[in-house]
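User: what does the whole thing look like in 3D?
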Amino acid sequence: MKVECPICGYTSATELESNTSVPSLIGGSVPRKFKYIHCEKCKEDTCIDSEYDEKFDRAYWMHSARSAHSLIDRINKSGTSNVCIERVLEIPFGTLDRWRLGQVTPEAIALLRIIEKCPGVLEEMDK
Ligand SMILES: [Zn+2]
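Assistant: Here's the predicted 3D structure for the full assembly of 127 residues, as structure tokens:
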């Protein structure tokens, strides 16, 4: 499809779609599709479809929420119980169960990742 280049105004730029996959910080990857304009005249590529970014953000977040379940399982298997985490962090009893069920925030995922990678952090906080 021929469109106008938003950079130089060339009227025979090409609208294209790209499929890629973005690695997740917590493992695996999330597919991402976006539209862009490629200009043969100025050689610029311009991303044009923010709706695709919203879809990606949602997909990325769903991936993270599902991962909370396996993240908590790994922490539990390494010997740290949910009750211990909740007590040391002074968060309400049952919080990790809710996180495990997907009612989790990006901040909670970040916290769980810290606990998994640095298990001694709970002991330090408990002193
Ligand atoms: Zn151009």
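In plain terms: Residues 1-48 form one domain. DSSP finds five helices and four strands in the chain.
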